[in-house]
Every structure is written in C-alpha cells, then in structure tokens.
C-alpha cells in the first residue's frame, strides 16, 4: 500500500511538472538510442553531426548531458544513463529555452523498466545490439529483451525505428510496432543491397589509421577504429538520412570526428607501445574490442589486457569475461573494476572459474588497479598493445561504498 501511494504521488508530481513546463518534449525532435553496447558512441556522434550542421542540439547520456554547447556533468550521487522523468522534463525545458531543435539521448533498460521515458514524444529510435548485461536487475535475458522492446512499442506511427539487422534480435525487437521500420547491416557483401536492409555497408579498409567504408555506394572515411565502430557509424549515417540531414556535409563531418572519451581511445608511447582505453564492461563488448585489436595489430605485437568485473553486479558474466580476456590476449591481467562492497579477490576468483590450464597460464592477478596498470607497462615492449577495459570515461573507483578519484588514462600517462 505504501508503494502504491508513493507511485501515485510520483505520477501526480510528474503530471503537474509536465503541465508547468508546457510538455517540452513535444517541442523537440528527440531520438532515443537503446541497446547493450554502442549507445554512447551513437548518441554522441549524432549530437556532433547535428551541431556541426548548425542545429542547436541536446545530448543526454552516460558520460554527460549537453544543452547546445553547455556541458552539464552528471551528479556523482546519481550518475544514471537516463535521468528520472521529472529531471528529464526539466532538462527538455532548458533545451527548449536554449533554442534546441534536436535531442539525442541514450535510453537504458532500467529507465524503460521503471517508466522513466513514458510519455516522451520521440521522433525516432535506434537499436544497436543486445547481449549479456544487467541480469542482476532483470533476472533473465527475456526480461532484458522485453524492457528494450518497450521503447519501440511506445514510438508513435509518425516516428522511425532503426534496427541492426545483423543482430540476432534486430528483427524481433521491431515486431508489431506502430513506427516506420528501417534496417541497417553489413551482412550483404555483394554491395547490391538486401531486400530487408535499407542501409547496407561494407568495410573496405580497417587498421590503426581508421576505417574506410561503403554505405549504400557512398565511400566514407573515419578516424574511429574497429568493426564495432563501423556498425555505430552505419547506424548514425542511416539516422542522418532519416532525419533528412545534408548527407554531403554529414560525410565530411564523419571524416573529422574523434571517438568519444573512453571509447577505443588510444595513444602511442615513445617506446612504441599502443595503449587503448575502452568502456567495454560486458562479455560481448570485451570480445569485440579484443577481436578488433587482433585484426589491426602488427604481426609481431602482443595483446596485454587489463580488466575486471564490478562488485554487487551480475556475477554470471565474470567467468565469461575472464574466459574471453584470457583466450584472446597474450597476457591477461585480472584486476578491480568498482568492487563496491565485495572483496576484489573473490571477484577475480570468479573470473578464473572456467579457464583451461593453458588460459590460466596467461593470467596475472593484481587486485590493485593502479599496480595492474603499472605491471602492464612493465611487461610491454615495442609493438605490443595494452587494452585497459571496463571504465573508459569513468574517473573514479567505487570501493566499500566510497568513490575515489581514479582515471585509467591519467594512470597510464603517469607510468609511460
């Protein structure tokens, strides 16, 4: 009964907040991006393209919220990917007052399950992919899928729904929705288009200089690296088409864009060691990043990975990530990644559960993340690639309920 009154009070408060602010979402063209991986990159790239085209634009996401060009860092006490409904309404009002026309926002499964985006007037929605994550909250994969599907079911018939056709759930997630369906993908390698794919792509070149791509017969170059970024770029390019942006200008903007902070961010040391910082914190994301590195690394270079798994979160993915990291790296350093209230050593033990004897021989365990980073640099020689995964843009470690400043990039630059 107490929970009922709490929900009713919140619904009433939201209703009057939207009336007070004159339903600001109805005055904006809001495009939501959902999926396990790629949300931040996709939303950020669309924000940058729209801004470069001269539109006043808002961004709502994991790293930061932006109103036109004003960056609003997250409240550290509640750094949600998607804010609560009342906070969103206030953000939209500020964006309207700033003259914004477009808003690109990440839409998380938690937000969808909790109804945080209900009642928002979306112009379009983008689906990136769906892999193992957040099962500590959703309990099983079906619930996780259904939470994501809610987003596309709420889109009106005037909106577009853009989905990754190469993804196992890409078709099902748009099943029986009102919005106009569109698909993108790389599966058609003939270059003539697949009847179910509206926007098809081919990778023409992939190395440490970036990507060269063919999108519907148009040649696109990008500084971004990896096959997973080819998908992000194709979704962004497709959405730009659906928004009727000037594609000649969009293609030129894509060529100049740098990757978002902590998303395959990389630099070369004076000793010829490549360091890559990436937010990959799911089995699928870690596998994609490591496979990308394997595709573009020098023949004589080794892969040294540094990563961990979060505490008080889905324990089932720990052994999967440990297996992926150990099998695809020459040396894998298992360490901490926001252990929260758990013992870091216990988390690392969970990561080692499914390793073969051969894989176990490649693993080094160092619970202190700073010391793990130092060890990775000590072990590396010219031509090696160090991947530090899991935190990306985050500048803290959460240990025993306390957030302490910690930035992977800062730590590497100190050591190197």
From TrEMBL:
GO terms for biological process: cell division; cell wall organization; peptidoglycan biosynthetic process; regulation of cell shape. InterPro entries: Mur-like_cat_sf, Mur_ligase_C, Mur_ligase_C_dom_sf, Mur_ligase_cen, UDP-N-AcMur-Glu-dNH2Pim_ligase. It is found in: Cytoplasm. GO terms for molecular function: ATP binding; magnesium ion binding; UDP-N-acetylmuramoylalanyl-D-glutamate-2,6-diaminopimelate ligase activity. It comes from Candidatus Nomurabacteria bacterium GW2011_GWF1_31_48. This is UDP-N-acetylmuramoyl-L-alanyl-D-glutamate--2,6-diaminopimelate ligase. Its main location: cytoplasm. UDP-N-acetyl-alpha-D-muramoyl-L-alanyl-D-glutamate binds at residues 81-82, 108, 114, 116. Gene3D superfamilies: Mur ligase, C-terminal domain (3.90.190.20), Mur-like, catalytic domain (3.40.1190.10). Meso-2,6-diaminopimelate binds at residues 313, 337-340, 390, 394. The modification N6-carboxylysine is found at residue 148. HAMAP family: MurE (MF_00208). Its cofactor is Mg(2+). PANTHER family: MUR LIGASE FAMILY MEMBER (PTHR23135), UDP-N-ACETYLMURAMOYL-L-ALANYL-D-GLUTAMATE--2,6-DIAMINOPIMELATE LIGASE MURE HOMOLOG, CHLOROPLASTIC (PTHR23135:SF4).
């Amino acid at each position: 009964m107490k929970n009922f009154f709490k929900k009713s009070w919140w619904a009433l408060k939201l209703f009057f907040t939207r009336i007070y602010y004159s339903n600001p979402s109805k005055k904006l063209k809001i495009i939501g991006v959902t999926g396990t991986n790629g949300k931040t990159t996709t939303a950020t790239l669309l924000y940058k393209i729209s801004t470069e085209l001269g539109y006043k634009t808002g961004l709502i996401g994991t790293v930061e919220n932006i109103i036109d060009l004003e960056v609003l860092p997250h409240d550290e006490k509640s750094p949600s990917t998607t804010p609560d409904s009342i906070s969103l309404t206030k953000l939209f009002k500020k964006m309207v007052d700033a003259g914004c026309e477009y808003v690109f926002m990440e839409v998380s499964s938690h937000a969808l399950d909790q109804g945080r985006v209900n009642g928002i007037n979306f112009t379009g929605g983008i689906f990136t992919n769906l892999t193992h994550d957040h099962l500590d909250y959703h309990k099983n994969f079906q619930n996780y899928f259904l939470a994501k599907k809610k987003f596309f079911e709420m889109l009106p018939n005037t909106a577009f729904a853009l989905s990754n056709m190469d993804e196992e759930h890409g078709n099902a997630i748009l099943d029986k929705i009102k919005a106009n369906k569109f698909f993108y993908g790389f599966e058609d390698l003939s270059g003539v288009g697949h009847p179910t794919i509206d926007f098809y792509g081919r990778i023409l070149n992939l190395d440490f200089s970036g990507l060269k791509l063919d999108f519907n017969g148009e040649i696109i170059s990008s500084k971004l690296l990896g096959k997973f970024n080819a998908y992000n770029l194709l979704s962004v390019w497709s959405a730009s088409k659906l928004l009727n942006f000037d594609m000649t200008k969009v293609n030129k903007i894509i060529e100049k864009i740098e990757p978002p902070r902590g998303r395959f961010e990389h630099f070369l040391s004076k000793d010829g060691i490549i360091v890559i910082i990436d937010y990959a914190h799911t089995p699928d994301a870690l596998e994609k990043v490591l496979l990308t590195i394997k595709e573009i690394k020098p023949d004589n270079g080794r892969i040294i990975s540094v990563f961990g798994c979060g505490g008080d979160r889905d324990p089932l993915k720990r052994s999967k990530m440990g297996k992926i990291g150990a099998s695809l790296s020459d040396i894998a350093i298992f360490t901490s990644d926001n252990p929260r209230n758990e013992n870091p050593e216990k988390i690392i033990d969970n990561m080692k559960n499914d390793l073969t004897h051969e894989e176990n021989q490649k693993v080094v365990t160092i619970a202190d993340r700073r010391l793990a980073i130092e060890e990775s640099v000590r072990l590396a020689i010219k031509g090696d690639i160090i991947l530090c995964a899991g935190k990306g843009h985050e500048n803290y470690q959460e240990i025993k309920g306390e957030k302490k400043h910690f930035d992977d990039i800062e730590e590497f630059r100190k050591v190197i």
